[in-house]
Design a protein that fits this description.
The chain contains three helices and six strands. The chain is of the alpha+beta class. Strand 1 and strand 2 form a beta hairpin. The longest helix has 61 residues.
Amino acid sequence: MSSLPAEHVVTVRERSRSRAVTAMRATIARMRSTAAEYRSMVEQTRSTVNAAQVLILQMDALQRALVPRQPLDVNQTGALDDRVAFRGRQRAALMAIYFLNVRDRGELIRDPDGSCLPDLRAARTEAIVSARELMAQSIATSGRIGIDRSVEISDAKGATLLVVPFWEAATA
């Protein structure tokens, strides 16, 4: 058995180490490239999701605009209950009256007038806008947000249909 000179063994080790370092550098470069591709794909996905959300909102608005409203029978007699007629040129649409009552520390502050809105979704949107306005007003006057309050949406008969907490309006 012949033994290799020490210089040769050191050279072989250095070459092996150099190859390993080169292979690791190549692996790291591929990983960086893959990470960059994934970041690009994530940005494209976010952009696509945002575009889809805009399209959904536009389609919802279009659908609401195209849904025919029940025409008002002008010969009808008697109360319209919780519906109010809004006359257009030739037809009138019936819209429900929603009351946006505010609950503050257990006390219910009733909406005396109500709002004529097409549906509960519109009432919820109105409640969020009102809650934000009330929070801004509260901050300006007392420095308190009043996030523990809520808007209770009720119908003309007084039945609570939906509760919108102020914290939801702050995060929506």
